[in-house]
Specification:
The complex is a heterodimer. By secondary structure, chain A is mainly alpha-helical. In chain A, about 45% of the residues lie in helices and about 5% in strands. Chain A has three helices and one strand. In chain B, α3 runs antiparallel to α8. Chain B has a single domain, classed as Metallo-dependent phosphatases (Purple Acid Phosphatase, chain A, domain 2). Classes of the chains: A mainly alpha, B alpha/beta. The interface between A and B is large, with 42 and 96 residues. β1 of chain A pairs antiparallel with β11 of chain B.
């Protein structure tokens, strides 16, 4: 069985390690959290926000199943939801006058 | 000028600041009660809610006290749906109003269902002789099975006392949010039962509840809840103040 010298083995291992490190470095860097958000994501934000100020859409019939509802429910919505609520206003316009 | 004009300011500020989907609702007993609202048959409140961009209104005594014809008129003027799933025609069993609405905001689909308490019709039976209030849990179960697959968040406007409204969370799966009513106290913290959040925002329009949910996978769960008071340092919305003054002139005492 042919034997290799320890020095040659060490050099070979070091060479393999350098090659592996060089190949993997760009991939890791691309996943760094310090990287800026891709342009396409930031560009969508103003449009998303503007849709919140639109008036209520038409409501479905009492037992209706609006077309396309399932497709939209499957789509990714906002990551946060805010609900503003009141109740029992009793027709008051100026309770804190 | 306080309530409506300050509330309009807070809602407008919230619209300008939130990054996610925004829904604005009232669980009911809201259109009438105060003298100006009674003199105008609830018109002042409907026009104000239109201006503030409300998305839905539930039904309680305040919506019913002037009878079916007045309510029909106000519903036709509202830019938001007025919802009650369990208030039905006694003969046909069909809902008198729209039972639910599916409303999309910011890419999120809300299924909003109205539930009316039996007590809402007490003393008003002669004005609503052909109407029956059905059991809330049975009614909700049927509608939620219908709309849950179509929406991301199910919101129930349950204008009923908090023990009864909160108990819906035990008996009816699939509800993310219950907005209660019918009691004169301020619930400062959201109550959670399983995956359901129960909230209620005081009375008389002196408070505005703000419930924030965060998406966790495909579900939305409680992030935080705040009660906002119409403090004197909240500036009046000028257009809303003008609207109220116009109604005072149009419907004098």
């Amino acid at each position: 069985m042919k034997r290799y010298s320890p020095i040659l083995c060490s050099l070979l291992i070091a060479l393999v390690a350098i090659v592996v490190t060089a190949c993997s470095a760009p991939g890791l860097a691309s996943q760094s959290p310090s990287q800026p958000v891709p342009e396409e994501r930031t560009a969508r934000l103003p449009q998303d926000v503007s849709t919140q100020t639109q008036p209520a859409t038409a409501t479905p019939p009492a037992t209706g199943n609006p077309a396309g509802a399932q497709e939209s429910a499957d789509a990714a919505g906002a990551t946060s939801v805010t609900i503003l609520l009141t109740n029992d206003v009793h027709g008051k316009v100026d309770p804190c006058g | 000028m306080g309530g409506l004009a300050r509330r309009a300011t807070l809602i407008e500020q919230t619209r300008d600041s939130v990054e996610g989907a925004l829904l604005v609702v009232d669980s009911g007993n809201t259109l009438m009660g105060d003298p100006l609202s009674l003199r105008s048959d609830g018109r002042v409140i409907v026009e104000a809610m239109n201006a503030m961009g409300y998305d839905a209104l539930g039904v309680g005594t305040g919506e019913l006290m002037k009878g079916p014809e007045v309510l029909r008129q106000r519903v036709s003027e509202a830019t938001f749906p007025v919802l009650s799933a369990n208030m039905v025609d006694s003969a046909s069993g069909e809902p008198v109003l729209e039972p639910y609405a599916i409303i999309e905001r910011g890419g999120v689909r809300f299924g909003v269902i109205g539930i009316t308490d039996n007590a809402a019709l007490q003393g008003l039976e002669s004005s609503w002789p052909d109407v029956t209030i059905l059991d809330a849990k049975e009614t909700l179960s049927g509608y939620i099975a219908e709309i849950d697959p179509q929406v991301d968040v199910v919101v129930v406007l349950a204008r009923m006392g908090s023990p009864d409204a909160a108990s819906l969370a035990y008996g009816v799966p699939g509800i993310e949010v219950i907005v209660g009513g019918n009691e004169r106290y301020v619930l400062t913290e959201a109550q959670t039962t399983g995956d359901t959040v129960f909230v209620q925002a005081g009375y008389d329009g002196e408070w505005l509840g703000r419930l924030d949910l965060a998406r966790d996978g495909e579900a939305y769960s409680l992030s935080q809840y705040q009660i906002l008071y119409m403090r004197p340092d909240v500036p009046n919305n000028a257009e809303m103040a003008d609207l109220v003054q116009r109604y005072y002139r149009q419907y004098p005492e």
